[in-house]
Write a structure and sequence with these properties.
The complex is a heterodimer of chains A (90) and B (293).
Chain A lengths: L7 H23 L15 H22 L4 H18 L1
Helix pairs in contact in A: 2-3
Chain B lengths: L1 H9 L3 H27 L1 E3 L5 E3 L3 H7 L2 H31 L5 H15 L2 H11 L6 H8 L10 H29 L3 H9 L4 H29 L3 H6 L11 H11 L3 H32 L1
Antiparallel strand pairs in B: 1-2
Classes of the chains: A mainly alpha (90), B mainly alpha (293).
């Protein structure tokens, strides 16, 4: 695995995504998702909202890094809020 | 019915059939992408010497004027390619005979540019457009246009666009042709009885049935034009100046030319995210309009 050039932060990041996917699978088996409409302009499933949350979180970071000189931890905080909001109300 | 639905949710053996594909995708896509993400947060001096730098390469890339210029050029190129190739492809497909020897001959002719490798297409156009020995370049100069794609940015852009249209419009035309052949003759007869104009037939009979293939055509052309590399590399080499340097060429210079693996990895992740965003936005908007209709 050395060739993959792992670092602790990236390992935690990918482990968190893998864990989230496992949780989504478990939830799907226990309580199958229903397409529903919330704040987003289209009906979404739980998986759709997860994808939108992740993509949105990535772009929040890119915008933050491209437009502000401030620390990226603020962007991570903002992205976490976005993630929770979209998963719950999206 | 309820029992069937219950069986569907409980019997998950079909997932085993998908397992080989998942493994191949992981091996050829997911794991390399994870490696690129790992590279993007480090300063890599050699195989054993690397330092964690956080988001530094991302910030550097996103504020790099050359990256922003290449990105804007890329957007302009993809927009122009889509705006020309999609309508032109549909127009060609509508004008084609649906059966007989002429149809077969035209299909073979249309498929020919698609069989030519990218670097060969670049070379063909590089010679064809030259102002000293190329048929196109010499003819334009004889007609009084001072054409020189190696010195004039506008000429370089027009040559690149003409080359891409020549190479890829056939794909759109073939896909649209396949879509049009699936329109039942009864629909045309009904439209004729109703006295529909040619435009109305296209808008209300053909276009709804073409939607599926056009989504594929637009997605393929969007992604392909957004990652174009070989043809401009052979034809213009990114010049004159940097006026035809697109994202992938700038990325290749960074990764292979300068071996700046960390910045190049951050660049790749940003590039990937934009392609993912465009494809998702496009796919979602088309699916939404399909649901609405």
């Amino acid at each position: 695995m050395t060739w993959m050039a792992w670092t602790l932060p990236t390992a935690i990041f990918f482990a968190a995504i893998a864990l989230a996917l496992l949780v989504l699978i478990a939830l799907e088996l226990k309580r199958p998702t229903l397409t529903s409409r919330g704040w987003l302009p289209m009906a979404t499933t739980r998986g759709d909202r997860f994808f939108i949350s992740l993509l949105g979180a990535a772009f929040i970071h890119l915008l933050w890094l491209g437009l502000t000189p401030w620390n990226a931890f603020y962007a991570s905080g903002l992205a976490s809020v976005w993630l929770v909001v979209i998963m719950a109300k999206g | 019915m309820a029992a069937m639905a219950q069986n569907k949710t409980k019997d998950n053996r079909a997932w085993l059939g998908v397992l080989p594909v998942m493994l191949i995708v992981a091996f050829s896509g997911v794991i390399p992408l994870m490696t690129v993400v790992n590279y993007s947060v480090q300063d890599i001096l050699d195989f054993n010497t690397r330092f964690f730098v956080g988001f530094e390469w991302y910030r550097e890339t996103l504020t790099d004027p050359r990256f922003i210029d290449a990105f804007l050029r890329q957007l302009g190129f993809s927009a122009a390619v889509l705006a020309i190739e999609i309508p032109l492809g549909i127009l060609i497909a509508r004008g084609m005979p649906t059966q007989g020897l002429r149809a077969s001959l035209l299909l073979v002719l249309l498929a020919t540019p698609l069989l030519i490798p990218w670097n060969v297409v670049g070379t063909i156009w590089q010679i064809y457009a030259r102002s000293d020995i190329g048929l196109l370049g010499v003819t334009l100069n004889q007609l009084g246009f001072s054409f020189n794609y190696t010195a004039e940015p506008l000429h370089a852009w027009l040559t690149l666009l003409a080359m891409d249209i020549w190479h890829w419009t056939s794909l759109v035309a073939l896909l649209a042709f396949a879509g049009l052949t699936s329109v039942p003759a009864a629909c045309y007869q009904a439209a004729e009885l109703d006295g529909a104009s040619k435009w109305q037939v296209f808008r209300h009979v053909e276009l709804p049935r073409l939607k599926g293939v056009l989504v594929i055509a637009v997605l393929l052309r969007l992604m392909d034009s957004f990652m174009i590399y070989t043809e401009p590399f052979v034809l213009t080499g990114g010049g004159p100046g940097n006026t035809t340097t697109f994202l992938s060429q700038y990325l290749a210079t960074m990764a292979v030319g300068q071996f700046d693996l960390g910045p190049a990895a951050a660049f790749s992740v940003i590039y990937f995210l934009f392609i993912l965003l465009f494809s998702w936005l496009f796919y979602t908007s088309v699916m939404r309009s399909e649901e609405d209709s």
